[in-house]
Amino acid sequence: MTDDTSLTSRLDKWLGKDGRTFFADVKRTRGTVLAVIPGPVINGRSIPHAVHFREGMQVRNWLRSQPECKDWTDQDFDNKWVGLVEEVLTRYSSRALK
Fold it and tell me: Are β-strands 36-42 and 45-50 bridged in parallel, bridged antiparallel, or unpaired?
């Protein structure tokens, strides 16, 4: 995880209220933002919703456009996006309490 305040601040702004709410709800109900949650039921079967492959991919793609991440490998993106999102959630909850 990085301690780059400007990167997490920009991620916070990019996620916005809807993104923070989504990830906060996943973390609250599943214990981590890196979760597989029940998806829609089609033909009587639930389709799993893998946050890593959907919303996580959107975060990783955004990170790829950031100058601090230009030397990151694909493995770095996979390993760091969760920590950055959770850092944003921690900062946001701290701000919300003030």
Answer: antiparallel
The residues spanned by each domain of the chain are 5-97
**Could you tell me which residues are beta bridge partners of residue 48?**
38
Side-chain-facing half-sphere of 32: CA atoms under 13 Å? 10
Type of residue found at 54? R
Q: Which residues contact 23 (CB under 8 A, 6 or more apart)?
A: 15, 33, 55, 85, 88, 89
Residue-wise pLDDT tens for the chain (98 aa)? 444 468 999 999 999 999 999 999 999 998 888 888 777 788 888 887 778 778 999 999 999 999 999 999 999 999 999 999 999 999 887 666 44
